[in-house]
Specification:
This protein is of the alpha+beta class. Helix content is about 40%, strand content about 25%.
Length: about 160
């Protein structure tokens, strides 16, 4: 696991949750795999290319969606929750990629939303570097995993070559 990628993933998750969803992360924890989750998976092409996976408990998804839309949780449709969680995945993935390689152009696939449990192994199937971040947010657990097909290094490391 790349320390740089892990750090960037953590920073991006916390920044997006705080600035766009008004949620402060309650800490980084590696919980037992929760049940009753929603998942979003997407691929990105560029330098580096790779895969991104977001899993979130249903309660956290509803809470985060309500905060983002300024609505009551009971008023939200499953489609609205799915759209917000897909947007959350896009925001976090985009934030990570802009920190990893700010000068590169990336193409993100449309997020693939699933209301059934998806294993983190989907992101781990690719060769390269990976990072996973767990956060307690919105009354549940948010898990983000990113896998790149080629090594990722910081700007300082790139300049050393």
């Amino acid at each position: 696991m790349s320390d740089f990628l892990q750090s960037v993933l953590r920073q991006s998750v916390e920044e997006v949750l705080e600035k766009m969803f008004f949620i402060r992360s309650l800490g980084d924890t590696a919980p037992e795999p929760p049940e009753n989750e929603l998942a979003v998976h997407l691929r990105f092409d560029g330098e580096p290319s790779g895969s991104f996976l977001l899993r979130i408990t249903r309660d956290a998804a509803r809470s985060i969606s309500a905060d983002f839309l300024g609505a009551e949780e009971g008023e939200l449709t499953p489609q609205q929750v799915g759209e917000v969680i897909c947007e959350l995945a896009n925001m976090i993935c985009g934030s990570v990629l802009s920190r990893v390689e700010s000068a590169a152009t990336f193409r993100l696939s449309p997020p693939q939303f699933s209301d059934t449990e998806a294993p983190l192994g989907e992101a781990a199937e690719l060769p390269g570097q990976s990072a996973t971040h767990f956060v307690e947010a919105g009354g549940g657990i948010l898990t983000v995993a990113m896998k790149t097909e080629s090594p990722v290094c910081s700007t300082a490391e790139k300049r050393a070559f």
